[in-house]
Amino acid sequence: MVKMAALSKFEQLMQDITTGNLKDNPENIVDRIPEVLEEEDMGTMDDMMTELRDYLDSKGKLEEYLDENGMMKIPFETVFSWFKTSIEKKRSGLR
User: Fold this and answer.
1) What's the whole-model pTM score?
2) Cα-only R_g, the chain
3) Closest-CA residue to 41 (of 92, 93, 90, 94)
4) Looking at the predicted structure, is the pLDDT value of residue 74 above 60?
5) Is 69 left (phi over 0), alpha (psi -120 to 50) or beta?
6) What tens digit of pLDDT does each residue of 5-52 get?
7) What is the Cα–Cα distance from 24 to 7, expressed in whole angstroms?
8) Cβ-based neighbours of 72, under 8 Å, separated by 6 or more
9) CA distance 21 to 4
């Protein structure tokens, strides 16, 4: 009998997304991001959002994501894309 290696939290999250287990439920995805970041040794959700804010600011696009009170209002898809890309870059040694 061959024992399968356990999936990392990131791999499990991606599997749950691609199989539709988390379809139309971004709250469950967001709830799992901090534990993935911790397992990948990539800091906290606040650290990730600060990186994203700094990146948007460096590209001159931050204003597009600020509401009238100066609060960041970044679409879930943008946050998730940044998260996924950051993990993949770190794993491939590009970070």
Assistant:
1) 0.83
2) 15
3) 90
4) yes
5) alpha
6) 689 999 999 999 888 887 777 888 999 999 999 999 999 999 999 999
7) 23
8) 49, 53, 62, 65, 66
9) 21
Cα 10 to Cα 15: distance, rounded to the nearest angstrom = 9
Q: Is 92 exposed, middle or buried (0-12, 13-18, 19+ CB in 10 A)?
A: exposed
Name the residue among 55, 37, 40 with its Cα closest to residue 92.
Answer: 40
Q: What's the rounded Cα separation, in Å, for the pair 68 and 66?
A: 7
User: Which residues neighbour 16 within 8 Å (Cβ) at sequence distance 6 or greater?
Assistant: 22
pLDDT at 20: 84
From CA 38, how far away is CA 56, in angstroms rounded?
23
Helices (H), the chain: 9-18, 26-39, 45-58, 76-91
